[in-house]
Amino acid sequence: GTQALAFTASPLLTRPLLPHARGQPPIHIKVLAPSGTDQLPFATQQAVFAGAFVGLGIAAIASAAAYKSAKNAVPGVWWDRWELWSAFTLGVTFVLAGRSHFTVPEAFKSIYPPVGTWGFWYLAGSSDFHVAWTGVAELLGGSGLLAGVMLSLTNQPNGRLLLSWSARCVLLVLCVSPANIYMYTHGAIMPGIVEGDLPVGWHAGRFVAQAIVLSVLLTTAKEFDDPAAAAGE
Length: 233
Hints:
The chain has helices spanning 42-73, 77-103, 105-109, 127-153, 159-186, 200-221, 227-230, and strands spanning 14-16, 28-30. By secondary structure, it is mainly alpha-helical. Helix 2 packs antiparallel against helix 4, helix 2 crosses helix 6 and helix 4 (127-153) packs antiparallel against helix 5.
């Protein structure tokens, strides 16, 4: 059935979004998110949604290209060490995030966009289902990155493993991005993790951080110029 979102807002600033099942509280969203997007016509909201996705992709690709140019201009072993450290850091981050999906699931269910958000959003399955599978995916993605890093530190073949799991993590980040956009457009928060009104500046900072994460993953998941290196030989 329809899931109740857990984030709170002033009763004067909320309205029911969807009909709710008997015995369940109605789903509420903020009528006026700090961004003001939820007060705009659906067509404009959809443009904001699409623009956020396109902007994220452009920022990530541009960042990855700038990194590659800098690496080619100033060769050095420390680039490889930085990439390994970045992969390790993201691996730990994904594992911890995936764990949180099961330790504080309500926080993640509260940012799951309800049916009808932006005038088009619909996914089959409950918020419980989507929170669970993305949690498992983050645990697996983080573990895959960490395994690749560990193999590298022990001088074992790791190129294909890191490439494969980094590519999967890129897709995962894109899959969960609608929840992040929903936080911006509708003022959703994560009880127990991120609470209170989040200013537009906070969302801008998170956008930049997410673009950097995608950039690092794209760099790690790139097709290696040297096929032997990609195979870890």
